[in-house]
Specification:
Elements: H1 2-25, E1 42-46, H2 53-68, E2 72-76, H3 83-95, E3 100-103, H4 112-120, E4 124-128, E5 140-142, H5 146-160, E6 165-171, H6 177-190, E7 198-205, H7 210-223, E8 227-232, H8 235-247, E9 255-258, H9 262-271, E10 276-279, H10 282-297, E11 308-310, E12 316-322, E13 325-329, E14 334-337, H11 341-344
Helix pairs in contact: 2-10, 3-4, 5-6, 7-8
């Protein structure tokens, strides 16, 4: 009898030990050892706001990279493009003990306390598309050289309007880092004496919301009856402006260029409302950010200048200086016009 009791006690103790080990195995830490469903590392991305086709494509690319690497992707975006809404999501992700947060910042500085809190918790933070300040992240993933974007947009619209006349810019939010950087380079390009007959009359903000972008475009046309060109360096804004110019029958009277999704801008390019516009592949921006996040979490990179990021199908990318921080550049802006839009509109 004593022997039987001893066996029973030993069995119970063994089962208790196994259960305890099982319960602890999925907890991990948030510095590269945290695990999500099925024991996978958890990688989060926060875009600016919901309902943005560009953002949806960017998050698709991020998800593709993360799942390609065998991890769990968490995709988040607030209803409104505000820093406050993103801060709430950052706090939620800290509680979830994710391994990494990649963020498209709605404000370069307001997110700093929340992102520093995340980094102190061992979470690897990076920004993409719209940067947060250097103290708030380890590295930034940029679509293209900001100077090339800004100068190219001015060169494009000036060619369209024949070298003289009033132009306006329809931006996203007034705090958007990427938009503001491009606009500064546009203004620098306009300082060249060859643009003496070109006047920038207004920088309007549609907040990356379709209805507000429509209203801002209509206001520009009303306030500046001699307006000859609009630059919209935002996919939401350029599509909204294209619709307004179409509805008002202003083809050839007010020129339009900027940064747009081929799938959304095809009809306006095909009808001549927009002769050409530019962009890069947002899927690739997100994809590159996914591989950069993996590099940070698993110690392949730290975010320092000169380090190389192995980015799957995109090949190897080098980390370069970016003001007080560092960045990884995807490539140059690409021109979409009537000669190639039919090919690209089915891609993204």
């Amino acid at each position: 009898m004593k022997k039987v009791l001893s066996i029973i006690v030993a069995t119970v103790m063994l089962m208790t030990l196994i259960a305890a080990c099982s319960n602890n195995s999925g907890e991990g830490s948030s510095n590269g050892e945290g695990e999500g469903a099925g024991g996978k590392q958890k990688y989060a991305i926060i875009f600016k706001n919901t309902g943005n086709p560009y953002g949806e494509k960017e998050m698709d690319g991020y998800k593709k990279a993360i799942e390609e690497l065998g991890y769990e992707a968490i995709l988040k975006a607030p209803d409104q493009p505000t820093a406050e809404a993103q801060i709430t999501m950052i706090d939620e992700l800290i509680s979830q003990k994710v391994n990494s947060i990649a963020i498209v910042g709605n404000d370069p500085d307001a997110l700093q306390p929340a992102l520093e809190k995340a980094m102190k918790a061992g979470i690897k933070v990076l920004s993409l598309d719209s940067a947060v300040n250097a103290k708030s992240r380890l590295v930034h993933v940029n679509q293209a050289d900001p100077e090339r974007i800004g100068r190219t947009l001015i060169q494009g619209v000036v060619e369209m309007i024949g070298g003289s006349g009033e132009i306006a810019i329809l931006s996203a939010t007034s705090q958007a880092t990427n938009q503001n950087t491009w606009i500064e380079w546009m203004k620098k390009e306009l300082e060249d004496p060859k643009y003496a007959d070109v006047k920038l009359v207004k920088v309007a903000y549609g907040d990356d919301l379709r209805d507000k972008s429509v209203s801002e475009t209509e206001a520009l046309l009303k306030s500046y009856p001699n307006l000859k060109g609009i630059i919209a360096p935002t996919t939401v804004g350029i599509a909204a402006a294209g619709k307004v110019l179409t509805d008002k029958g202003l083809k050839g009277k007010v020129q339009l260029t900027g940064l747009g999704l081929p799938s959304e801008m095809a009809e306006y390019i095909e009808t001549g409302i927009c002769q050409w516009m530019y962009l890069w592949n947002p899927i690739d921006v997100g994809y590159l950010a996914g591989y950069a996040a993996d590099g940070l979490v698993n110690g392949k990179i730290t975010g320092k200048v000169g380090e190389k990021v192995s980015a799957g199908t995109l090949g190897e990318k080098e980390i370069v200086q970016d003001g007080d921080g560092t960045q990884i550049m995807l490539g140059d802006p690409f021109k979409f016009d009537a000669s190639n839009i039919a090919e690209w509109k089915t891609v993204y």
